[in-house]
Amino acid sequence: MPAWGQARIRYAEESVAFERRLAEHLAENEAVTEEFRTMARAVWDRAWQQYPGALATFGSENPSMPGTVGTSRPALQQVLRTGHLRELVTFLFQGISSDLVPEMLGGRRTPSRRSSRNGRVAARPRAAQNWSGWPHS
Which residue in 50, 57, 80, 81 has the most C-beta neighbors within 10 A? Predict the structure, then answer.
């Protein structure tokens, strides 16, 4: 194998090792967990006010997904009180991927039907669409 190929393999291996160490560090850092808990409580409280019937969206019954605790309100409220980082991240992921959190924050971002090469979205970000100073208006 050429040297450049070996270098790429080595880089990929080191990258995986770094990501693993970073994940372990973050999972053990209580301040990180508390920040995720704060975000999770904020979206839960907002959902409770705006979409009380959709609170189960923050959970999942999928046993193969790490960090799932079910969809019952008591189980989800327990995550907010004492959940570990993986449960909190899964809680937020479920709310975001189901479009509940994006909807609460002003609407789901949908890709424009016009897209450029390689599948990149050509439309401006939603937050910039109404800004008169946008350079490509």
Answer: 57
Beta-carbon contacts of residue 107 (< 8 Å; ≥ 6 apart): 126
> Which H/E stretch holds residue 14?
helix 3-28
Alpha-carbon distances of 76 from 7, 101, 110, 118, rounded to whole Å: 45, 16, 28, 39
Cα dihedral angle (99, 104, 106, 110), rounded to 10 degrees? Answer: 0
Tens of pLDDT, residue by residue, the chain (137 residues): 899 999 999 999 999 999 999 888 888 899 999 999 999 999 999 999 999 999 999 999 999 999 999 999 999 999 999 999 999 999 999 999 999 999 988 876 665 444 444 444 444 333 333 333 333 33
In this prediction the pTM is 0.68
